[in-house]
Structure formats: structure tokens, C-alpha cells
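Deliverable D2.4 — example input (C-alpha cells):
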């Protein structure tokens, strides 16, 4: 009974928030022009970012046929996220393994409930695999199974699974990468047996083990990730895509995914850049936030402070893009978390 009440309240709350939370000034909404939405984020603003990306996803789902969320993580993360969306398996959600709060994921669960597969939100990831996400993914994939017959592969899998309980760090990531290279090499000779062993999880296991996006640098990550993104875009089902990437990745005139997609002839004109403007005092912002905000036209800053929370401001229709302001076509006004 308590579970049913919780779900009912969650559905009502989700519906209410998704209706009017995003504000677009009258006569400026041309979001239907795009199929790919790239929202930038400042990674240190986790609380604000969680709220803003969720509200934006709900709005685009309702009004602009959004069906895919792409986060700045790899296929290991997307396996965990989609598994939770499908099963609400509590073991997927625990510290250090799945980013954002449980409320975030449960809101997406409620959004998907009673919808056919083609109308459900799905999560994708094309960035580098993280040790903790991969360890957890392989643990879930092998849970309840007998050891894999090839001892060398089983041993290599066990070493990767150990990372599920270890807080992520760059030092650990470097060790993890070496272990993954060894496992990948071993798996090349046992594809048929591994397909049978992993069953319905084989596509996800294969995607993780063959993923070659490195952790450094930003430009190299996006160049390598772009081939996976383009394959996904060429083969996906119906629906538009929202990317939630670090601000430098999302700039349309930068060096990352936003610019690469925007300059690709196949997607040119379909890419919508969304810059996050946090309504914080200058002193509350980090140096990188201060520097990125300085790219905004000076004359619009006071107006952004007066906009209501979660407003989308069309810079292009104000004559500021592409002649004066080339970072994005839209600015997303995000309030400070209470």
C-alpha cells in the first residue's frame, strides 16, 4: 500500500512539475527545429545540474519528442542506468555507482511507466568507462552464474568486479584501464562462448569491453566518442536526444562534441546548444564559471538575473547568434539550489 501511494504521488508530482516548470518567453520557441540538444553543465554544481537536466528532459519529452538522454559517462554507466529504469533493482543504486539522486531516477521511472518501449526515455553513454561503473556492471551481469569456463577470462573478470566497491580515482582508473586491455584481448578469442555465457547482456558487455574512448584529453575523448555517437544516431529508434555534458564539451564554437556535431553536414542545423547560467553572485561562482559567463553579451546579464527560474532564453532570436554570441543558441537560467 505504501509503495502504491509513493508511486501515485511520484506520478502526480512528475506530471505537475513537467507541465510548467520550464518557461520560454512567448513567441521565441523554435526548439522544434532541432533533434539534438546539448546542455552544458559545470560539474561542481551537481545539485543544480540534477534539477535542471531533469526539468529540461521532462519538458523536451512532452513538447519535443525527446527519447534519449546522453550523459558524460560510458556504456558501463548507461547499462546500470537503463537496468534501474527497467527493474528498479535497488542493488544498482548505491554510493559511488550511479550518479544523481534516487529521486532523479525514480522520476524517469514514473515518466516511462505504462509507456510502450518506443515512448520511453533511454540512457546512453559514449564517454570513457569508469572503473566503479564497469565493476558494478560486470558484477550484475555475472551474478548467479557459474564461473566462466576459461580460467584466465574468469580471473580477469574478477579483478574488474573488485572495482565496484572502490571509490573512483585517477590512480585507480589507470590501473583499471590496463586490466581492461588484458580482458579485452582475452575475450577476442572466446566471442561465441561469451555470447552464450552473457545471453541478453552480451550486447552491453561487448559494448563495454570494446569501448576505446580514453580518459584524457577532452578533445581526444570527444573525437573518439563521436564515432559511437554517430553510429547511435544512425541506428536509433524514433526520438530526439538530450546531451548533458560538461560546458567545454557542449560549446558550439569550442573543441568538443557540440562543435563536432554542429559542423557535421549530416547534423548541421539540427544541433541546439544550451548554456547554463546560474543565478549566483559573482563571488559564489568558480573562476571557470566566471570566465565562461564572461562570454555572454554584457547587455543581457542583468536581464538573466531577472528571469524566472528555469527559463530558456533564445539568444538567436535576439540577434546575438551567430554574429555576436557563438557558444550556444539558448541560455538556460538555473536558480541556486535551496
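Example output (designed residues):
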Amino acid at each position: 500500500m505504501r509503495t502504491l501511494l509513493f508511486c501515485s504521488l511520484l506520478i502526480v508530482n512528475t506530471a505537475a512539475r513537467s507541465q510548467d516548470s520550464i518557461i520560454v518567453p512567448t513567441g521565441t520557441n523554435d526548439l522544434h527545429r532541432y533533434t539534438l540538444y546539448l546542455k552544458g553543465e559545470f560539474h561542481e554544481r551537481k545539485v543544480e545540474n540534477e534539477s535542471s537536466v531533469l526539468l529540461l528532459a521532462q519538458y523536451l519529452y512532452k513538447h519535443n519528442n525527446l527519447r534519449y538522454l546522453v550523459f558524460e559517462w560510458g556504456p558501463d554507466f548507461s547499462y546500470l542506468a537503463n537496468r534501474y529504469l527497467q527493474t528498479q533493482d535497488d542493488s544498482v543504486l548505491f554510493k559511488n555507482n550511479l550518479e544523481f539522486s534516487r529521486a532523479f531516477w525514480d522520476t524517469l521511472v514514473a515518466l516511462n511507466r505504462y509507456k510502450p518501449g518506443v515512448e520511453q526515455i533511454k540512457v546512453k553513454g559514449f564517454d570513457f568507462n569508469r572503473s566503479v561503473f564497469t565493476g558494478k556492471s560486470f558484477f550484475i551481469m555475472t551474478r548467479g552464474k557459474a564461473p566462466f569456463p576459461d580460467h584466465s577470462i574468469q580471473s580477469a573478470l574478477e579483478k574488474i568486479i573488485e572495482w565496484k566497491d572502490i571509490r573512483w580515482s585517477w590512480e585507480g582508473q589507470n590501473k583499471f584501464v590496463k586490466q581492461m586491455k588484458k580482458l579485452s584481448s582475452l575475450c577476442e578469442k572466446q566471442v561465441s562462448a561469451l555470447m552464450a555465457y552473457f545471453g541478453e547482456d552480451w550486447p552491453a558487455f561487448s559494448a563495454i569491453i570494446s569501448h576505446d574512448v580514453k580518459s584524457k584529453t577532452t578533445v581526444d575523448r570527444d573525437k573518439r566518442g563521436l564515432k559511437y555517437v554517430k553510429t547511435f544516431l544512425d541506428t536509433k529508434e524514433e526520438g530526439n536526444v538530450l546531451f548533458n555534458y560538461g560546458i567545454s564539451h557542449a560549446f558550439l564554437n569550442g573543441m568538443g562534441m557540440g562543435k563536432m556535431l554542429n559542423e557535421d553536414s549530416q547534423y548541421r542545423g539540427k544541433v541546439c546548444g544550451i548554456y547554463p547560467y546560474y543565478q549566483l553572485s559573482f563571488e559564489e561562482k568558480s573562476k571557470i564559471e566566471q570566465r565562461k559567463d564572461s562570454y555572454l553579451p554584457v547587455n543581457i546579464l542583468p536581464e538573466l538575473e531577472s528571469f524566472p527560474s528555469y527559463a530558456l532564453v533564445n539568444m538567436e532570436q535576439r540577434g546575438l547568434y551567430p554574429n555576436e554570441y557563438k557558444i550556444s543558441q539558448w541560455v538556460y537560467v538555473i536558480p541556486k539550489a535551496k
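The radius of gyration is 21 Å.
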